[in-house]
Design brief:
The protein has eight helices and four strands, in the order ααααααβαβββα. The chain is an alpha+beta fold. The chain has two domains: 102 residues, Orthogonal Bundle (Peroxidase, domain 1); 70 residues, Glutaredoxin, CATH 3.40.30. GO terms for molecular function: proton-transporting ATP synthase activity, rotational mechanism. This protein is part of the stalk that links CF(0) to CF(1). It either transmits conformational changes from CF(0) to CF(1) or is implicated in proton conduction.
C-alpha cells in the first residue's frame, strides 16, 4: 500500500498542476473519481494485468468505460497506460483530492454516529465544526452502532469523541486510576 502511494504521488502532483493551471480542479477531480472506480473494478484489474492486451487496446477500453474526458485527461490516461500505472489510480485520486482540499482550504471530516443524523442536525453540526476549525469541511457520515449513542468526529488528526462508548471508556480508565 505504501509503495502504491509512493508510485502514485508524482502522477497526482502532475495532475494537480495541470488542473490548477487550467483552472479545472473540479472537472479533474470528477474525472479521477470515475477513473479510480474503473481501475478498482475486478474485471478491469484482470484486463490491466492481461499481457494479451496491447497498450492501445487497454487505453481504448479505459476511455470507453470512463466516460467523457478532456484531451489532457486522455493524455494522462495514456501516460498511465504506457508506464503500467493504471492500478494506482485510486491512490492518485486520493492524493489529488488531498492536494485540491489543501489548495482550497478544505478539511476532511469523518463523522461516525450511533444513529442516522437528520439534515438539520447535520447542517448545524457542520456549521459548528467549520467555526471551530475555521475552514470549510468536506463531511463524510457513517453509522457505527458500536458507539451506543452520540458521535465521534475526526478532522485531520484531531478526534472529538462525544459517544457513549467513549464516555464509558473514560469512566473505566478513571476508575482504574
Amino acid at each position: 500500500m505504501a509503495e502504491n502511494v509512493t508510485i502514485a504521488r508524482p502522477y497526482a502532483d502532475a495532475a494537480f498542476e495541470l488542473a490548477r493551471g487550467a483552472g479545472a480542479l473540479g472537472p479533474w477531480s470528477e474525472a479521477l473519481d470515475r477513473l479510480a472506480v474503473v481501475a478498482a473494478d475486478s474485471t478491469m484489474r484482470a484486463c490491466i494485468s492481461d499481457p494479451k492486451l496491447t497498450a492501445g487496446q487497454l487505453m481504448q477500453l479505459v476511455l470507453d468505460v470512463a466516460g467523457t474526458l478532456s484531451a489532457e485527461q486522455q493524455n494522462f490516461v495514456r501516460v498511465l497506460v504506457d508506464n503500467e500505472r493504471l492500478q494506482v489510480l485510486p491512490e492518485i485520486r486520493d492524493l489529488f483530492v488531498a492536494l485540491k482540499n489543501e489548495h482550497e482550504g478544505v478539511l476532511e471530516a469523518d463523522i461516525a454516529s450511533a444513529f442516522p443524523l437528520d439534515d438539520a442536525t447535520l447542517t448545524s453540526l457542520k456549521a459548528d465544526l467549520e467555526a471551530r476549525f475555521k475552514a470549510k469541511l468536506n463531511v463524510q457520515v457513517h453509522i457505527d452502532p458500536a458507539l451506543i449513542g452520540g458521535v465521534r468526529i475526526a478532522v485531520g488528526d484531531e478526534v472529538i469523541d462525544a459517544s457513549v462508548r467513549g464516555k464509558l471508556a473514560n469512566m473505566a480508565a478513571a476508575l482504574k486510576n
